[in-house]
Design goal:
Shape: elongated
Mean pLDDT: 75
Number of strands: 22
Length: about 375
């Protein structure tokens, strides 16, 4: 079991205590575990980025009743091989993860657990710069655990064929100015023109700046985007992240509905749709292998800046199958915990994907992004 089982300790113990209290009405105060303790193993976790350097978290697994926060490994050594050639010994340090540290790891369950619980573990880093197509292998040895290995191929960047808006939906314009009903525009600008003034915090000036909204201005809108992907033949996995003024997105596109575990399903006016995750929005090309695919999604825009031009940016990554499988299975695992106590106890257990031989964990590869932007003049 990996460090994500730290998340499970309180949940599982609480479930047992809750059910026992229903049955025995608080007659039993102590609950003893009578099963067998799972053997501890090495855990290796970390995403590797093209253009980046090696970064790993390594520790030993915890039994779910173990409340230790020190999961460091004695005598840890980690070697990096690229295309079957030894490259370097990674530098190993002890660390306690706290908020803001090691952002590369926050997207994984173990990273969130370590950040939340302050677990002390081993952080490993190197100097080699990964290139697309590199076949890399990590080998870890220690004083007390069996050796583990993880091998991946660094992905190439995907190809964006085009990125543009399809339309602006539900554009809400301010009503015409009526001198007899000035409350609709209670403010005036420097020239005395009727308007509504909104004040928004500006990072550059560390203060509030006015946004003037005049009759006929767009105040908010639903923008429908279309991203065309030029997909190669063979199984390819993607991760879509947004940037600039595109803070999130919603979609009913089949590729996201098939991959609902990577974000979450929202229900709006009786219809279900995909709402993006801030971490990763993974999907594969099983619906469009070898074709140009038009991926659709939308964003509910609302005026929040002084500038009238808004920049909407997408970053499309190719990720290896290891990370794709991990995201799907780990999200399913967590989802099963949210469906209720009784259902959880009778449900089939979800196995979290691991590509660490001899141990537990996930080492995945991420390409350089293909980036595209749309600039809209919203006024």
């Amino acid at each position: 079991m990996s460090a994500n089982h730290s998340i499970m300790k309180t949940i599982e113990i609480s479930i047992i205590a809750f059910l026992m209290s229903l049955t025995f009405a608080s007659c039993i105060k102590d609950i003893e575990f009578s099963g067998e303790q799972t053997e501890s193993k090495l855990v290796m976790i970390g995403l590797q980025y093209v253009g980046g350097t090696p970064q790993l978290l390594v520790h030993h697994s915890l039994f779910f009743l173990d409340d230790s926060d020190d999961i460091k490994v004695n005598g840890l050594q980690v070697k990096l091989f690229v295309n079957d050639e030894f490259v370097e010994d990674l530098t190993v340090v002890d660390t306690v993860l706290t908020s803001g540290d090691f952002e590369f790891e926050k997207s994984t369950l173990a990273g969130r657990a370590a950040d939340a619980y302050g677990l002390s573990m081993n952080y490993c880093s190197g100097e080699y710069v990964f290139q697309a197509g590199d076949r890399i292998r990590f080998e870890a040895t220690s004083d007390d655990y069996d050796a583990v290995t993880a091998e991946i191929v660094m992905p190439v960047s995907p190809v964006i064929h085009s990125f543009d808006t399809v339309k602006l939906e539900n554009i809400h314009r301010m009503p015409p100015y009526d001198p007899e009903n000035p409350v609709l525009y209670p403010d005036v600008d420097e020239e005395g023109n009727p308007c509504m003034i909104y004040y928004f915090y500006d990072d550059s000036s560390y203060g509030s700046v006015p946004v003037y909204v005049y009759p006929g201005d767009i105040s908010d809108a639903t923008i429908v985007f279309q991203l065309e992907i030029d997909d190669p033949s063979g199984v390819t996995c993607y991760d879509l992240k947004t940037d600039d003024d595109l803070l999130w997105f919603a979609s009913n596109d089949p590729v996201f509905l098939f991959e609902m575990e990577s974000g979450y399903i929202s229900v709006f006016e009786g219809e279900s749709g995909y709402s993006s995750s801030q971490d990763h929005n993974v999907f594969n090309d099983r619906l469009f292998d070898g074709d140009i695919y038009k991926l659709g999604f939308s964003y509910d825009w609302s005026r929040s800046k002084l500038e009238e031009e808004q920049v909407f940016t997408v970053n499309l990554y190719q990720v290896d199958d290891n990370f794709y499988q991990y995201r799907r299975t780990s999200s399913t695992y967590v989802s099963n915990l949210d469906i209720g106590v009784m259902t959880y106890l009778i449900a089939e257990p979800s196995q979290i994907y691991s590509n660490v031989k001899g141990g537990i964990g996930i080492v995945g590869g991420v390409s350089l992004p293909a980036t595209a932007s749309v600039i809209l003049d919203l006024k």
